[in-house]
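Q: Hi! New to this. If I give you a protein sequence and the SMILES for pyridoxal-5'-phosphate, can you show me the bound structure?
A: Yes, paste them in.
Q: Okay, here:
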Amino acid sequence: MASEIMSAFDQLRDREVAATIPVYGQLPFVPVRAAGCDIVTDDGRWILDLYGGHAVAALGYSHPRLTSAIQNQSKELLFQSNAVALDIRAHAAELLISVAPESLRRAFFVNSGAEANENALRMALVATGRSKILAISHGFHGRTAAAGAVTWKSEKWYGFPARPFDVDFIPRDDCQAAIDMIGDDIAAVIFEPVQGVAGAYDLSQEFVETLRDETSRHGALLIADEVQSGMGRSGQFFACQAYAIEPDILTSAKSLGGGIPTGAVLASDEVAGCFGLGALGTTFGGGPVAAAAVVAVIESIRDEGLLKNVREREQQIREQCVVGPVKKIRGMGLLLGLVCDRPAREVRDALLEHDILTGTSSDPDALRILAPLVIEDQHVNRLSAALSTIAPADA
Ligand SMILES: Cc1ncc(COP(=O)(O)O)c(C=O)c1O
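A: Thanks. Here is the predicted structure of the protein with pyridoxal-5'-phosphate bound:
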């Protein structure tokens, strides 16, 4: 039986390797459907998903409000571009800005996190007329030309012959370096309030406030990349709200559509005012199905009290999950880094044997939790119990 299962998995893997560009190391199971927080595999396993498809599945799977919104919208009007006004797009934009930091009054919809950052950076360069961007060490912003240029250590894979603008990196949490580096030549500083790919590293309050103060003082813009930390994952709609700062531009994607690809750039009136007809563009961004998904995700987070749930589950994880190989927990909400006493990859593999899916990160010791916002206390109990079966390295 086991060898038949393996061979079904291997056969599928072989087909993907043969027909795609095989750049992903893939997990050893084949999902066939999913419901709530569980993924059901082709061999009948039920895997508790605490990784959410890279932080996308905010509402878990088969959420009735999201699936019927997508279904109904696709039957009514599957697609029209920004060449026409759509009630559902206006509704999505109004809702999104109503839950965002107060000064962000305008939304521009795109298709992914990298595309949102690409536009945000371009907007900052155009709006300020300056040509240098600062980013934060260890940050990740995507793999396109501009987003990759502000990603820490991207030279390993960047591939473009040159960066499109000058970039420098402020060492994370180094307030003095931020003060020294942010000057009148800087167009923008881009940062993730909680660095996701870096293993859920939450920047210090003092550092984030310094970024805000110094950019304001020098006429530079502050861009918050909330592609991973946003849409409820921090326990607030956006992590900037937990830090009580107002960025000039904020980017969102991943959870924004709950699984339907969509992203958004949010901007203040002042920044948005620099862009007139034809200054930004996209074919698919703001399409009706994506917009219907955005509405369903925001309304579900609001109506189901999911921000409160995120904060309660975070607290429970902090109380119950510093066990077994876990030495400490960092991050915010359900963007958590469980810092382990061994390579996180080993802990992830051990948890998968207990049918629990977690993620790794660019920090080899940090196991990432990016659970759906709908996880329940029993799920955290399961995680804690499974971690307890793994003996600490020094036991
Ligand atoms: C903080 C952050 N920004 C941008 C991106 C890129 O998003 P996408 O993969 O949708 O282009 C990611 C993806 O992991 C991310 O975590």
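A: DSSP finds 14 helices and 16 strands in the chain. Let me know if you'd like me to explain how to read the tokens.
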